[in-house]
Amino acid sequence: MQALETLAEALRAERSALIQNDVAALGAANATKLAALRQLEQAELGDVERARVVELAELNRANGALLARRQREVRWALRQLGRGETVPAYGADGQIGMRARQRALGIG
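^ that's the sequence the OP posted. Answer follows.
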């Protein structure tokens, strides 16, 4: 089934993009993956195809773990630069908003 092969290729491309930190390739692989998944949702799958989907789901979970690791690395690097994630804060109008947490890196 072509959709399964497309999905497998997209997952391999996604992994490669994550390893190489290639944002453009990651976006392209993700778009291809989603299109293949949409096709598979509409298809009648036999036992062989279902088994292949289970194998590919494991590859997708591994990619998700790698993505989570990359996200932690980016958050850590941003914190070291004093550009941490945003934190909830109330504005002058009383509405909750997001305010960047900052940290000085030197004496100024």
